Amino acid sequence: MRVSVEFLPRGSYPDIVLLVDVLRASTSIALLFERGAREVWVTPSLRLARELEADLALGEREGIPPEGFFGSTSPSEILEMDLSGKRVVYTSENLPGALRAVKEAPRVYLAAFVNARAAVETALRAAREAVTVVAAGHRGREALDDALAAGFLAKKLLRAKPEAVPDDGARIASALLKAYPDPQEALWASESGQLLVSRGFTEDLAQASVIGRTSRVPLLAGYREVRGQPVFTLVADEPA
Amino acid sequence: MRVSVEFLPRGSYPDIVLLVDVLRASTSIALLFERGAREVWVTPSLRLARELEADLALGEREGIPPEGFFGSTSPSEILEMDLSGKRVVYTSENLPGALRAVKEAPRVYLAAFVNARAAVETALRAAREAVTVVAAGHRGREALDDALAAGFLAKKLLRAKPEAVPDDGARIASALLKAYPDPQEALWASESGQLLVSRGFTEDLAQASVIGRTSRVPLLAGYREVRGQPVFTLVADEPA
Fold first, then answer.
1. Which of A206, A233, A216, A201 shows the shortest CA–CA distance to A96?
2. For residue A53, what are the contacts with CB-CB under 8 A and spacing of at least 6?
3. How far apart are CA B211 and CA B153, in angstroms?
4. What would the mean pLDDT of B21-28 be, rounded to a whole number?
5. In terms of CA atoms, which chain B residue is nearest residue A6?
6. Could you write out the three-class secondary structure of chain B?
């Protein structure tokens, strides 16, 4: 068994991928399932999000949900929603590009601090030979929040499978835990964190750093294009 | 002034690049200039290296210099060479790809632990707006040795210019120094380090982790293709 970490998606995966976009998509989508969502469709386009035939859409323009949207993509707000049985459209600038880069992997899960334990168990149950933890990054650049969460997941994977072989990426990411024993500090220091703070989503940094709040692990279950825009379908998996 | 770190070359640079391939090319090439070399030509091809009209060629096949080569690319061996005024061909599997990815930057230097102080001073003297420290990585994947050296350089840059703004890459790389206060430990743990050890180049890990042994900073001064293979010309710069 190999445990690898990539600081940005590179796009060739032999087995299981844990895709990490801590602030906020992988955090928020895990929590959507925790709140009962049946299916989540991820797309970058606010216009398309409005037109897709789901039960409700979440998204923001400069921090505010545009007209016709049920709410924002903030984990703090999601935790107060009742989404039982709903199909939810989730708009994200950042996640669709990362999903596109990893979608050919045999299996892709979303992982974050909030579902770390469950994501590790689910990945190890499904893995034949390798788990690659892929940090989504932010606008095509390495992101501190994702790198730290990737290190946290890699360390958990290696603890659960002491015979597994880490790569240098896993060594680098795990080493970050020494410098940031409290994830929240890294989230505050990160560019994504500062952007959220500037938009008034300070509480999201606390929510995104809670470890193991949910056992739901979003699984990439489908991909289609609608009017030239990608739409990814996610469903919930969880440890047996 | 911005200070950024990339864990693999991505290829769009506004200003100064410090390219890091600690084991071994950026280490060894800095030492070639320390030993008096006038010019270094870097190419991936052993065959081409033999044919280029330089004074001598360095390279290895499975750890041994092939016939017609003056010696290996080991820093330990280079430190014993007298290369005064020589034009040296340096063959490397890894560096040419990284050089190709960064070559459009306004200025590219090679940096390592052995020339860290000089590389930082030279970069800051030349920089208008940004220094990007680019870890070459190993075979297209993040490398612990390069990531740590990149963090070391980023930290030195930020100390010298306290008003400079780090990006998340610089934060991640600098954080590694907490986990690896002794660079040699990281070099030993790295995949490149283990590969060198397996080929009998154990001493290189010690040589590559000596900080500030030379004030020579290799500068990318030219690029040409010869029979479909890249040849990069490097010359020595140093702090004023």
1. A233
2. none
3. 11
4. 97
5. B142
6. CEEEEECCCCCCCCCEEEEECCCCHHHHHHHHHHCCCCEEEEECCHHHHHHCCCCEEECCECCECCCCCCECCCHHHHCCCCCCCCEEEEECCCHHHHHHHHCCCCEEEEECCCCHHHHHHHHHHHCCCEEEEEECCECCECCHHHHHHHHHHHHHHHHHCCCCEECHHHHHHHHHHHHCCCHHHHHHHCHHHHHHHHCCCHHHHHHHCCCCCCCCEEEEEEEEEECCEEEEEEEEECCC
Query: If you measure CA to CA, which chain B residue comes closest to A167?
Result: B191
Report yes or no: B227 at the A interface, CB cutoff 8 Å: no
Q: If we measure between CA atoms, which residue out of B235, B214, B238, B171 comes closest to residue B35? A: B214
Q: Is the pLDDT of residue A142 over 90?
A: yes
- The overall average pLDDT reported for chain B is 96
List chain B residues with CB under 8 Å of A167.
Answer: 141-142, 191
Contact list, B181 vs chain A (CB under 8 Å): none
Q: Under DSSP, is residue A229 helix (H, G, I), strand (E, B) or coil?
A: strand
> Above 90 in pLDDT, residue A158?
yes
Pairs across A and B, CB distance < 8 A: 76
pLDDT tens digits, residue range B26-48? 999 999 999 999 999 999 999 99
Residue of A nearest to B139 (CA): A168
User: Which residues of chain B neighbour A10 with C-beta distances below 8 Å?
Assistant: 140
State the Cα–Cα distance between residues B140 and A104, nearest whole angstrom: 19
Distance from CA of B193 to the nearest CA of A (A): 11
pLDDT at position A63? 83
The answer on pLDDT for B11 being more than 90 is: no
Which pLDDT score, from 0 to 100, does residue B61 have? Answer: 87
Chain segment A7-38, per-residue pLDDT in tens:
999 989 999 999 999 999 999 999 999 999 99
Mutation site, B133, B152, B167, B172, interface A, largest A CB count within 10 A: B172
CB interface of B with A, residues 35-64, below 8 Å: none
Chain B residues touching A194 at Cβ < 8 A = none
Domains with residue ranges and CATH for chain A: 2-237 (3.90.1560.10)
pTM for the structure as a whole: 0.95
ipTM (interface pTM): 0.93
